[in-house]
Amino acid sequence: MRSLLLVLLLAACAPMQATHEAAPATPAAAAMAPVPELKPGVPAGYLGKSLPDSLALLPPPPAAGTAGFANDVAVSRASQTLVDTPRYSLAASDADLTPAHAVHAFECALGVPITQAQAPRTLLLLKRTMVDAGLGTYGAKNHYNRTRPFVHFQEGTCFPADEAALRKDGSYPSGHTAIGWAWALVLTEVAPDHTDALLRRGRAFGESRLVCNAHWQSDILQGRAIASGVVARLHGDAVFRDDVVAARGEIEALRQQGAMPTTDCAAEAAAIDIRIPGVQ
Description:
Number of helices: 17
CATH superfamily: Phosphatidic acid phosphatase type 2/haloperoxidase
Radius of gyration: 18 Å
Largest sheet: 2 strands, antiparallel
């Protein structure tokens, strides 16, 4: 089965390529080795086929009739009480995995903008780890092909544009969660003084999938587990380590310049403060 993540990345090819060509040259960009691509303008991950095997690492998802599934159902139903709240709006924004959009989710936690013009190595780091974290979930996703809550309950999601694809894409573990948690972990290395804010945003990014009605809680918990494994594996890759160092330099330079996030950080913080019922 072709992964939804890969479909989204390839669909985003044209705007990503145009952004890349429009960016001004920087010393860091000039020193970079050629980056492998999934398609022109769409960078590949760092790990290729050397990803952790989610099917080997994860237990099966909770089966119907078990206490685990009863908890998934209870959390799912409680999360839907947040429809039409600011937390639901944030979930809808977090659902959009178009890379040019998704990376902005971490600007407030990081404290600076993440753009091709201002932070090209940081943006590349996030695009490439996005591929690794997302694709790292597909061994288990494709094997179990778990039905998503919105399909189970015959409802909709916070992001209708993805629903047709999601119906064919396994729910367990959550790829969105894996991406968000991997980004939080990697950015914590880039900006360790913002650790708490980054990890809080990474957790919220995954839990948005509950509010969106697209994933069960067990999907999200195991999405974090796979993200942690992927990031641990990334530390053995020299190119990844170099990109982390380069991103650290970009972020520090942006701070010295007084660059500010492009996101409404007050509204984001207020939305994250809304607790999801049943989630500890």
